[in-house]
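FAQ: What does a multi-protein file look like?

Like this. Sequence, then tokens, then the next protein.
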Amino acid sequence: MKSNAPGQLLGYSIQFPRALYHLLRIGPGETVCVEVLGDVAVKMKNNEVITEEDKSSLHGKPITDKSTDLWKTFSNWIVPIKEGILEANKTKYILYCNQSGQHSIVDQFSDASTIDDAKKAIKNAKDKLKDLSSDHLIWDDYDFVINQNEELLRQIICRFEVQYGFGAGYNDVDIEIRKKSVPPSLIDFLRNKISGWLLETIQEKILKKEPACIPWESFDRQFLSVFERVRRLELIDFALEAPPKDDEIDNQVKIWPRYLRQLDLIGLTDDEIVESVSDFLKADVNRHKWIEKEIINEDMAIDFVNKLRGFWKSQKKKIEITEKNLPDEEKGQLLLEECKTRKETIGEMTPPYPTIAGTYHALAEEPILGWHPFWEKLLAGQEEG
């Protein structure tokens, strides 16, 4: 059975990258809205408005000379002008399409910038559609726009622009993010982070029956520090975006890898084991992402590990000298606690909290180090058994 559901879903969802695109372009005192004065709208601080209608297609240009979307769009702009909701000369009109195609009426309207240009574009539209019958699907909107409100249409055309994008509409978003001096390798991270926040914010407003409008100040308050950290290539906590799932933690406990056996040797509780697994997985995610995004290189990673190993070695010796009377398990617990709370940097950057502990667990897994005073002998006995 054929269905147009995928196309409809794309049509609705494309409003979110378009809202994000405008949010990245506005400034203080300005607001982006969804489904308020169009599919997407911008309220400018000079009391002008950008109203945008978004049209999408899975195959080919969504706006043709005889498409209902074309004439319904202009009809939808004329009505609020006549009702006093929009001021024709204080509004910019954008028709966004996710696919381009042959030059057509909509492109001629977009090319027009003066009243004379608009008159010529309208005359051309009339000539192209002179054989249009009154029973055609677009007739009512076409007649309303062209025949009944030509003067208003001329004013709209002078402030009208058709914009073409690609696919789901995120290419334009990525360009705007890059303009803010964001390294190319981190654009997708930042885009996904802002997109998630935008979707959640709009949904919350809709549920509260509030207009889905987002002031620039809300956006700036949420992401100013994020942009600054990204520009400085700081150690972003990618694990916040995808924290370990319960089944991932359960699977680690089930397979009982070496680093957990090391913790078992010093008598850690079940809760401490779960926390350690979470730290291990978070550190693993961040380590791979930092290298992939070129925030750190191999030399920086090696230097970091060497500093952790050096601290572990010095603390192990200190505990052997100062805590001779402690049981072996407690010596191991003390050594672990000293190591995982260690403050250390990676290339002069401070890593997220789980990184130190998680990296120590990774080293215990190899095994390069351990916690029990006799960890090597005990692990060897387990593996032989």
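And here is the next protein:
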Amino acid sequence: MARAEEPTGRGERIAFEALESGARVEASDGTEVGHVKRVMIVHEKHLFDGIVIRTPAGDRFVDAPEVDEIYERLVTLKIDGAEAAELPKPEANPGAIRLDASSFGRGAGRRFLDRFRR
């Protein structure tokens, strides 16, 4: 016997890996914020990093701790509509920078890099 559909049309709860683009995104106060554009995953560590959403103001990034629940057709946030309006634009991952000796001035960079090579 098939289960009855949720009255809100949100579907079943799912894991972040199954979330597809187009799902509606709502703030904690019920305000519609936008729609999922892309799920951000750190594949090497199998970690949910957040989502990029399409909003009337352009693409915005929602960090994983700000995501409350994930359903087949709906993502709810832990922040309200006013906070959601202040979400940042998505940017490149700052953790993926390249450091070399010139990044730290004369001598300091070599000592820094030597510590990470050990």
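Q: Is there any per-entry metadata?
A: Some entries carry free-text notes. For the entry above: The radius of gyration is 19 Å.
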